[in-house]
From TrEMBL:
<keyword id="KW-0195">Cyclin</keyword>
<keyword id="KW-0804">Transcription</keyword>
<dbReference type="InterPro" id="IPR043198">
    <property type="entry name" value="Cyclin/Ssn8"/>
</dbReference>
<comment type="similarity">
    <text>Belongs to the cyclin family. Cyclin C subfamily.</text>
</comment>
<dbReference type="GO" id="GO:0006357">
    <property type="term" value="P:regulation of transcription by RNA polymerase II"/>
</dbReference>
<keyword id="KW-0597">Phosphoprotein</keyword>
<dbReference type="InterPro" id="IPR036915">
    <property type="entry name" value="Cyclin-like_sf"/>
</dbReference>
<dbReference type="Pfam" id="PF21797">
    <property type="entry name" value="CycT2-like_C"/>
</dbReference>
<protein>
    <submittedName>
        <fullName>Cyclin-T</fullName>
    </submittedName>
</protein>
<dbReference type="GO" id="GO:0016538">
    <property type="term" value="F:cyclin-dependent protein serine/threonine kinase regulator activity"/>
</dbReference>
<keyword id="KW-0805">Transcription regulation</keyword>
<dbReference type="GO" id="GO:0005634">
    <property type="term" value="C:nucleus"/>
</dbReference>
<keyword id="KW-0539">Nucleus</keyword>
Length: 129
């Protein structure tokens, strides 16, 4: 059995499948510390990062920096928290990943919300839907 799994692993690597992913949690923690987010906002963002891994394919479609920003953006929306732009005029996510735009964040946040709305009722109850 081990030999079959080993060969399958080699085949997947050969075909270019990413077998290990970088998690967004590291970036969620760093950004929440950077913007001095409340404990509740940081925890909700972290839970969203975990939920994104379990319930979406974002982790294989987007960089972990993008997923982290989506999770933080969603947590901010739900808690009516605004992360103020920097004195240089850039939004907070610019400093995480310069390829991220507000339009991309909004689009992916709406996709994530759509997934959550189809989820078990405990998510809806916890996050206000």
């Amino acid at each position: 059995m081990f030999e079959v799994v080993s060969h399958e692993y080699i085949l997947l690597q050969t075909l270019g499948f990413r077998l290990a992913i970088e998690h967004p949690h590291t970036y969620v923690v760093k950004v929440c510390q950077l913007v001095k987010a409340s404990k509740d906002l940081a925890q909700t963002s972290y839970i969203m990062a975990t939920t994104s891994l379990h319930m979406t394919t974002m982790c294989v479609q987007y960089k972990p920096t993008v997923v982290a920003c989506v999770c933080i953006h969603l947590a901010c929306k739900w808690s009516n928290y605004l992360i103020e732009p920097c004195t240089e005029g850039h939004d907070w996510f610019y400093y995480v990943d310069r390829s991220i735009t507000l339009e991309l964040l909004e689009e992916l946040t709406q996709e994530f919300i759509a997934v959550l709305e189809k989820s078990p009722h405990r998510f809806k109850r916890k996050f206000g839907k």
